[in-house]
Design a protein that fits this description.
With 468 residues, the chain is α/β, with parallel strands linked by helices. It is built from 12 helices and 18 strands. Helix content is 28%, strand content 15%. Helix 1 crosses helix 7, helix 9 packs across helix 10 and helix 10 packs parallel to helix 11.
């Protein structure tokens, strides 16, 4: 269903020199960019940032944040709603910790689009454009995170500016339509691959090997000679950008700051356990550490929730694609919600406790919702009839927290969670809100595509006024 690539233990030094520079300060060699590569500028830890939590497969909106207890049984499902600490807002009973902090987040219940395939849904949601093909995960236009990375490529931070935290074997740029299309690979995220809760997890190759300092100096001297032709008139600003990119990469592997930022053992045991000693929790904690150290955009992909050393539960799905043929939706979703509830409630509370809510916007979503009516099929693992829900882009729920207005619900769906009832929105309105939070003038920002045509950062979309 989702393309995979060979399992990778983590970035090597070549990756660091390549993506450490380009994902943070790079982009100098892209031939058709609308912006020349700028010299690195200071990127303070007071800048706005985004933590983007991606739930691929499509979590069921009516079993999480948009429950319909008065709907017929074949629509409302097996769960019951519980009251949150905000009067009038209810969520699923299997998210009790999130129910206690609803005053610190907002729910958007009326986002919809038209692409029901995973590939088409990923591309539509993540690029803010209708894809040329309704299937497949290779982007025609850049993922929104790459657009931000390209704009902010000249900013300095102690860590990569654009990071993706993902399972091993799932880090390929086209697994989730995270590709940068015509912007080029310099706008790809720096990948953190594996399970940070695993005792064997290690962020390798973020420091120089002992005894290699002199070799690095010699190689840099040789590299400067090859760069000589660029030292003349620099009308496009590429030499300046290359120098800034290389300096940024060297800072990553030449100092301890980046390695320390990724080191979760620097957190107290109490904090780590509050987030949860599982990949959902430790990825959320790492995301918080990275934005504290200056990252502008951190994506956390939350799929398989299986803790270290355990086997994935029988009749469960790797991601959130809860067709009856894949899993028993109510067993599978309840299991995943336990991990998601702990991780997201801890992250939200931590953002507020540390004052990060003033500058960090948290977005939690998948590519679409699930069908309002429960369907039954024979499970591929069990061979028996069981419940599930199919793809449904006509409605979905999104959680946002931090640097936005909270304790409220934007929009609603009809009585059976079928389509938006009021305040209909699209993914573009979400991204307009995110770009606005990042102080990006998206209405007047464009990039050159592969043919040299200027492409607007966002073809349409308006900031969701209730959130600002």
């Amino acid at each position: 269903m989702f393309p995979t690539s060979p399992i990778c233990p983590g970035p090597n030094r070549r990756d660091v020199l390549r993506f450490g520079s380009v994902a943070v300060a790079g982009g100098a060699l892209a031939p058709l960019m609308a912006h020349k590569a700028n010299a690195a500028s200071d990127h303070t830890t007071n800048d706005p940032a985004v933590i983007f939590v991606w739930l691929p497969g499509g979590p069921p909106h009516q079993d999480t944040f948009d429950m319909k207890p008065d709907a017929p049984a074949e629509y409302r499902g097996a769960y019951k709603p519980i009251q949150t600490n905000v009067n009038g807002i209810q969520i699923c009973e299997h998210m009790p910790a999130l129910a206690k902090c609803a005053d610190k987040y907002a729910l958007i219940r009326s986002v919809a689009h038209k692409f029901a395939d995973h590939g088409g849904g990923h591309k539509r949601f993540l690029t803010a454009r209708d894809p040329k093909e309704p299937v497949g995960f290779v982007n025609d236009t850049p993922m929104v995170g790459s657009l931000v990375a390209e704009l902010w490529k000249g900013k300095k931070a102690a860590v990569p500016n654009y990071v993706n935290i993902v399972d091993g074997g799932r880090q390929h740029i086209d697994t989730f339509s995270f590709g940068s299309a015509y912007l080029g690979p310099q706008s790809h995220p720096f990948a953190v691959v594996g399970d940070p809760s695993d005792g064997k997890f290690e962020m390798k190759n973020l420091s120089l090997l002992p005894g290699t300092e002199d070799k690095l100096s010699d190689r840099l001297s040789l590299l400067k000679k090859f760069d000589g032709p660029l030292n003349g008139p620099d009308l496009a600003g590429r030499a300046e950008g290359m120098n800034a990119a290389r300096e940024r990469a060297l800072n990553l592997i030449g100092t301890s700051a980046a390695k320390n930022a990724f080191d979760l053992t620097r957190e107290s045991v109490k904090t780590r356990e509050r987030y949860g000693m599982h990949r959902y929790g430790q990825r959320a904690l790492m995301a918080r550490r990275l934005v504290e150290h200056g990252a502008s955009w951190v994506t956390c992909v939350l799929e398989n929730a299986t803790p270290p050393g355990a086997q994935m539960k029988e009749n469960h799905c790797y991601n959130w694609d809860s067709h009856a043929v894949n899993c028993h939706i109510f067993d599978d979703t309840q299991y995943k919600l336990g991990f998601l509830d702990q991780a997201m409630s801890a992250l939200i509370e931590d953002l507020y406790l540390r004052g990060l809510n003033k500058r960090v916007l948290l977005v939690v979503t998948g590519e679409f919702g699930r069908t309002p009516k429960v369907e039954y099929s024979k499970g591929s693992q069990t061979g028996v009839m069981q419940p599930g829900r199919d793809h449904w882009p006509q409605a979905q729920s999104i959680l946002v927290s931090g640097a936005c207005k909270t304790g409220l619900v934007v929009g609603s769906t009809t009585a059976k969670a079928e389509v938006p009832k009021d305040r209909p929105l699209t993914p573009n309105d979400l991204w307009a809100t995110v770009f606005g939070h990042l102080n990006i003038d998206f209405n007047n920002t464009s990039f050159l595509d592969g043919t040299g045509r200027p492409m607007p950062m966002l073809p349409y979309g308006e900031v969701i006024r209730e959130l600002v």
